Amino acid sequence: MAARIDxxxxxxxVKLAKRFANTGLVVEHSALPRATRExxxxxxxxxxxxxxxxxxxxxxxxxxxESPVRLNLVAAWRESTVFTEAExxxxxxxxxxxxxxxxxxxxxxxxxxQVREHYDDDQTVALVALVALxxxxxxxxxxxxxxxxxxxxxxxxAMRD
Length: 161
Hints:
Blueprint: H1 11-28, H2 34-48, H3 51-63, H4 68-73, H5 85-98, H6 109-118, H7 121-144
Domain Carboxymuconolactone decarboxylase-like: 24-96
Organism: Actinophytocola glycyrrhizae
Protein name: Carboxymuconolactone decarboxylase family protein
């Protein structure tokens, strides 16, 4: 199935993508480690079934030096030994923050405590914002059927102001 509309060929879509990318710069320039950012983005995208975002974050992570083993195990991170306790806390937050409708409490107190054990205030704010932003991006791409496979690492860098 082809994309319903090309957001990157539409004037409003391009403006939105540029503003969205600039908002993401706050998270990118935070002290939250890049590996954590890519793992969290990948996991939320897997849950939401966003091929475009899975493609993007896999390729960006690889370009940043992430190992294929870790990327292949993100979907089963609880059954893996390759993630730090801090990364596990971030992945749990990504899952619970993505699946808000599945639990009446949203993010559990246990997961929040694990996040706070490993991340300072600025990193925590960046992590929460990242979960919100990747979920918004997933929804944009899934609604219009933006397909994965054509993304090239670094291609959004030119969109930023």
